[in-house]
Specification:
single chain, globular, binds NADP nicotinamide-adenine-dinucleotide phosphate, 262 residues, 7 strands, alpha/beta, 7-stranded parallel β-sheet
Length: 262
């Protein structure tokens, strides 16, 4: 078939007029993705449990990108706080077009050395928290016939790693939950995709960043043989949050330096 009309190209990535809620947005990958969305034109609300950190990050982001940005304190594991977070986002920005679930934790250790409470803690933040936030925004996105849900899974949602039973269980669950949400939103213009990052040097990895084992692991696990730079998450986030990904739903997009390619 011959295409006569000009194709939109880079305009597909433009987020001007879009609004985004980013949990775990006060730092790390959440903040990097929020900055990516703001640079593409979106207004953003950054959420973490610590109001001052979220507000300071939002102020810096607004300054850097010339977009409105807001900070909000909520614990994503508490349903009432998630509802209040959505209400605050709607008051500030009118509606939520894009949800990025980046709030997450990791507790490492061989299974016999972990407690049931530690397992539950990881599952509650990573899985229940993500589920509660998706559940909150879903009806509005469906009613407006446009929505983008981007859930942070991990390369460890796709492959195993000794000493990470709670984390791998939680990230595999996010990949599967996201596929199911994709099916539930498909008829109403709501897409849901997960991003599966490899090793990024954020607070989450401080404990292993400078160790010989940590360095050896990153070189051994990734085809690119290095840690990722924070900005290397931004392209995937902008893509999955924009019209550029309108035919992509239920995907688990690896941004992992080739970790899961081998
Ligand atoms: N870094 C990596 O290499 C890597 C690799 C694969 C996947 N990921 C995933 O990417 C996401 C972001 O990771 P990151 O490295 O950016 O982590 P990070 O730097 O530790 O940031 C985590 C963010 O989540 C927030 N948070 C934690 N628990 C929360 C809760 N109950 N309610 C609300 N906010 C909460 C934290 O703020 P407060 O503590 O102030 O609440 C912070 O903003 C996570 O889901 C992680 O599993 C990371």
């Amino acid at each position: 078939m011959t295409q006569h009309a000009p194709l939109p190209g880079l305009k597909l990535f433009n987020l001007t007029g879009r609004t985004a809620l980013v949990t775990g947005g006060s730092k790390g990958l959440g903040l990097a993705m929020a900055a990516g969305l703001a640079s593409a034109g979106a207004e953003v609300m950054l959420v973490s449990r610590h109001r001052e950190e979220a507000e300071a990050a939002a102020a810096a982001l607004a300054r850097d990108h010339g977009r409105r940005a807001f900070g909000h304190a909520a614990d994503v594991t508490v349903s009432a706080q998630v509802d209040a977070m959505l209400a605050a986002a709607e008051r500030a920005m009118g509606r939520v077009d894009i949800l990025i679930n980046s709030a997450g934790i990791n507790i490492r250790g061989p299974i016999a050395e972990l407690t049931p409470e530690q397992f539950t803690q990881v599952m509650t933040v990573n899985v229940t928290g993500t589920w509660l936030c998706c559940r909150a925004v879903f009806p509005g996105m469906r009613a407006r016939k446009w929505g983008r849900i981007v859930n942070l899974a991990s390369a460890l949602g796709l492959v195993g790693l000794a000493g990470r039973t709670p984390y791998t269980a939680s990230k595999g669950a996010i990949v599967q939950m996201t596929r199911t949400l994709a099916l539930e939103g498909a008829a109403d213009g709501v897409t849901a995709n997960s991003i599966c990052p490899g090793p990024f040097l954020t607070d989450m990895n401080l404990a292993i960043a400078d160790t010989e084992d940590g360095k050896k692991f990153v070189v051994g696990a990734t085809a690119l043989k290095r840690w990722a730079r924070l900005e290397e998450i931004q392209g995937a986030a902008i893509f999955l949050a924009s019209d550029a990904s309108s035919y992509v739903t239920g995907a688990a997009l690896a941004v992992d330096g080739g970790w899961t390619a081998q």
